[in-house]
Design brief:
- It is a single chain.
- With 77 residues, the chain is an alpha+beta fold.
- The protein has one domain.
- It is 12% helix and 16% strand.
- The chain has one helix and four strands; from the N terminus they run αββββ.
- A two-stranded parallel ribbon has the order 1-2. A two-stranded antiparallel ribbon has the order 3-4.
- A hairpin with a 4-residue loop joins strand 3 and strand 4.
- The longest helix is centred in the N-terminal third of the chain and has 9 residues.
- The protein is globular and about 30 Å long.
Length: 77
């Protein structure tokens, strides 16, 4: 990955989402990675990564995103 010693692990983030009671209504979409302890809807290893101009870099707070698991698609609405 660009800009770091390795791919960031997201367990603290997913634990925070669950701890805040947001698990049932919140998904995490990241170019980071997950451990076996992750819970909830979590989509990781998105490529190309944001730091190299991947489409995930275009997402801003408040944007609506459609996640279609059977079609393996994530669309910015």
């Amino acid at each position: 990955p660009q800009g770091g010693p390795g791919m960031r692990e997201m367990l603290r983030i997913t634990a925070g989402i669950k701890g805040a009671g947001l698990g049932p209504t919140t998904a995490l979409l990241t170019d980071g990675r997950f451990s076996g302890g992750t819970t909830g809807l979590s989509i990781g290893h998105v490529a190309p990564e944001a730091s190299t101009g991947g489409p995930i870099a275009l997402v801003e707070e408040g944007d609506r995103i459609r996640i279609d698991i059977p079609q393996r698609r994530v669309d910015l609405l």
